[in-house]
């Protein structure tokens, strides 16, 4: 913006000066001299209207003096009635030359001063602020004595300098500096005192993916992480809903359909060929009350997505039957947890929002949801072991394998798998196998059965030297107090492990140890956070991989198998994997080939490490360790030779053969050829 300065103040000043001249004020010093000079009136007549002082001047005593006085009075009277413009236009009236002051021409000087002032005002009016600043010398000239005490140019120069300093400050400062020092720019000026720039806070819209909870900007319709559509129908149709298009179908409240079929459980003839499913919609009330910048991964939508998938596939309700839900009793919980832990969880029912750890929340419904989950798992174990159900799937939350004897952590309140294992033993099982394939180590389950030889706990999880949550589950953790070997940890050293690594570990560790243990009842702590696409697990297990692992465990304990939901936070991954597992429970083939399963290098090294430790407790592992070690040695030797050959070929580039280095090329090739024969 260019700032223009008006010339009106200068014009007003000129008018004031001329008015002072017309009233005789400019000659006050000359009037003081009139007491000594007899011709004061004649010397003062050319100043225009003399006012009262000029009219009271002493006249000359002669007649000619009276006539001169009359002429002066007439001219003064005429001047008094004229404006400044009239005086300027009729300046000839005041240009008469007298003998006494022939060398003094105030009208001409006055006219010159007026014209100079007008030119200066015109220049100021036509100049911008920048021009005035660059040519400030034009306006700094000292005027005559009549305006010596008036310095508009100096004041204007000071104002210009202040404005320029402020503009320079603004130009050199960043937006953050200007915001932090906004007081520098809040001074009220006469020109823009009523102008207050509005501070607009621009908020960027965002949305959270229903599938993986990752944040996205409003201008995208598909999640940047998992590719799910902004308005996906995964909660209505499960993983059968398209991830790429907007869902326009009729909403299906899967949990209400399941609730409506709960009463049919007594009408469905149960036999050892049926698969039971445990679910209760009251577990959906367990949710985080406090709103945080990012949704909690353990959310009610996990169960909704699985229930919608099963309903869409016609599995549940349909091919599976529900069991009635009940809340587990305090006495049953005391077989697993301490009284203090149970009372602490119950206390949350009187609090709107609470936290056991920074990531383990509870609301007023959480304690009941945890009791329902544990009660369903206990009843399913009893149903399956007693023969009233062939196998079962516990569609429950909150999860439980991190909950220890005295603490709740890792989203878990009560340990559902431990409750089910002890319920199976109460029903008559002597030995119980728990296989935990959740990507996180089940530290709570290990703690509960660390000294128990009747329960074999095997966990496959990411460990990475203790850097992955919860940091426990090293291969050297094998059990204590006479139960060494009844805790088997298979700790992956990195993320990204997939189907081949898990199947390889099952073939060489899980199944040999489980077969030697010969369990009466098998429980799977089925966390699906090692599935492909999970935001927390970052591994690569597919639904087919989970189905195959279920199939491999199905033959143990005469098919008495209970699958309990643990983790898993990508809705599409968890719902498709759970559906694949339940299909195996229903008798469907996994459709995978077990031949030529080759693990990753990291996976093979982990399996060898675990075999070396566990063969001290399970003798059948000795031969497997020797075979794998030999195979691994041959594999390493072959790779070493390939690396050496690549290194040797890089010593003598082919273009040396025709250049100045041809001799060196032949020498190196001959030498390398000889060495290669020795190998």
Give the strand order, joined by hyphens, for the main sheet: 4-3-7-12-11-8-9-10
Q: Give the biggest sheet.
A: 8 strands, parallel
Q: Tell me, what's the shape? A: extended
User: Fraction of residues in helices?
Assistant: 40-55%
Mean pLDDT: 77
Total DSSP helices: 25
- Radius of gyration (CA) equals 50 Å
Beta-strand content: 5-15%
Distance between the termini: 83 Å
Q: Low-confidence spans: pLDDT under 50, at least 5 residues?
A: 1-65, 92-105, 138-153, 184-190, 250-270, 671-679
Structural class: alpha/beta
Find the count of extended strands (DSSP E, 2+ residues). Answer: 12
Report on this model:
With 679 residues, this protein is an alpha/beta fold. The chain contains 25 helices and twelve strands. Strands 4-3-7-12-11-8-9-10 form an eight-stranded parallel beta sheet, sandwiched between helices. The chain has a two-stranded antiparallel sheet with strand order 1-2. Strand 8, helix 19 and strand 9 form a beta-alpha-beta unit. The longest helix is centred in the last third of the chain and has 29 residues. The chain is extended, with a radius of gyration of 50 Å.
């Amino acid at each position: 913006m260019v700032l223009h300065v008006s010339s009106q103040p200068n014009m007003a000043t000129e008018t004031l000066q001329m008015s002072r001249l017309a009233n005789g004020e400019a000659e006050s010093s000359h009037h003081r001299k009139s007491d000594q000079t007899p011709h004061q009136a004649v010397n003062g007549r050319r100043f225009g209207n003399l006012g009262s002082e000029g009219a009271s001047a002493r006249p000359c005593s002669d007649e000619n003096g009276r006539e001169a006085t009359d002429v002066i009075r007439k001219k003064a009277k005429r001047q008094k009635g004229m404006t400044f413009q009239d005086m300027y236009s009729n300046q000839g009236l005041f240009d008469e030359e007298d003998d006494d002051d022939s060398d003094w021409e105030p009208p001409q000087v006055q006219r010159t001063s007026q014209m100079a002032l007008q030119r200066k005002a015109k220049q100021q009016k036509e100049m911008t602020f920048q021009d005035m600043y660059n040519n400030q010398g034009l306006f700094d000239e000292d005027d005559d004595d009549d305006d010596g005490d008036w310095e508009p140019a100096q004041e204007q120069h000071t104002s210009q300098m202040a404005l320029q300093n402020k503009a320079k400050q603004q130009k050199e400062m960043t937006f953050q500096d200007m915001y932090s020092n906004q007081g520098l720019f809040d001074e009220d000026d006469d020109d823009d005192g009523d102008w207050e720039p509005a501070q607009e806070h621009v908020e960027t819209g965002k949305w959270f993916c229903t599938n993986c909870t990752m944040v996205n900007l409003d201008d995208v319709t598909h999640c940047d992480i998992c590719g799910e559509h902004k308005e996906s129908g995964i909660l209505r149709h499960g993983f059968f809903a398209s991830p790429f298009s907007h869902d326009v179908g009729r909403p299906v409240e899967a949990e209400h359909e399941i609730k409506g079929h709960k009463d049919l459980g007594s009408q469905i003839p149960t036999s050892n060929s049926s698969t039971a499913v445990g679910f209760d919609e009251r577990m959906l009330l367990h949710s985080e009350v406090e709103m945080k910048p990012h949704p909690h991964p353990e959310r009610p939508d996990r169960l909704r997505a699985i229930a919608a998938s099963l309903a869409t596939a016609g599995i549940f309700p349909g091919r599976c039957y529900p069991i009635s839900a009940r809340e587990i009793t305090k006495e049953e919980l005391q077989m697993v947890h301490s009284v203090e832990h149970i009372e602490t969880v119950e206390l949350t029912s009187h609090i709107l929002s609470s936290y056991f750890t920074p990531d383990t929340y509870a609301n007023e419904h959480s304690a009941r949801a945890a009791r329902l989950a544990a009660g369903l798992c206990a009843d399913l174990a009893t149903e399956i072991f007693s023969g009233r159900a062939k196998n079962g799937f516990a569609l429950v939350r909150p999860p439980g394998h991190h909950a220890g004897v005295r603490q709740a952590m890792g989203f878990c309140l009560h340990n559902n798998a431990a409750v089910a294992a002890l319920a199976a033993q109460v029903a008559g099982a002597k030995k119980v196998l728990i296989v935990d394939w959740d990507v996180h180590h089940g530290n709570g389950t290990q703690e509960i059965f660390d000294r128990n030889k009747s329960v074999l706990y095997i966990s496959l999880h990411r460990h990475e030297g203790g850097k992955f949550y919860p940091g426990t589950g090293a291969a050297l953790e094998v059990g204590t107090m006479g139960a060494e070997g009844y805790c088997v940890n298979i700790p992956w050293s990195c993320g990204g492990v997939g189907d081949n690594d898990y199947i390889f570990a099952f073939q060489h560790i899980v199944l040999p140890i489980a077969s030697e243990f010969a369990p009466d009842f098998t429980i799977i702590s089925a966390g699906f956070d090692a599935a492909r696409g999970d935001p927390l697990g970052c591994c690569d297990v597919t639904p087919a991989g989970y189905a195959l692992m279920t199939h491999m465990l199905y033959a143990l304990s005469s098919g008495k198998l209970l699958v309990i939901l643990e983790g898993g936070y990508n809705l599409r991954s968890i719902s498709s994997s759970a559906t694949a597992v339940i299909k195996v429970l229903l008798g469907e083939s996994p459709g995978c080939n077990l031949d030529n399963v080759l693990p990753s290098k990291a996976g093979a090294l982990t399996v060898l490490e675990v075999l070396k430790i566990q063969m001290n407790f399970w003798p059948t592992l000795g031969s497997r360790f020797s075979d794998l070690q030999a195979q691994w040695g041959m594999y390493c030797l072959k790779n070493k030779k390939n690396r050496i050959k690549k290194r040797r070929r890089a010593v003598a580039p082919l273009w040396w053969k025709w250049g100045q280095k041809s001799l060196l090329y032949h020498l190196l090739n001959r030498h390398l050829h000889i060495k290669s024969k020795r190998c």
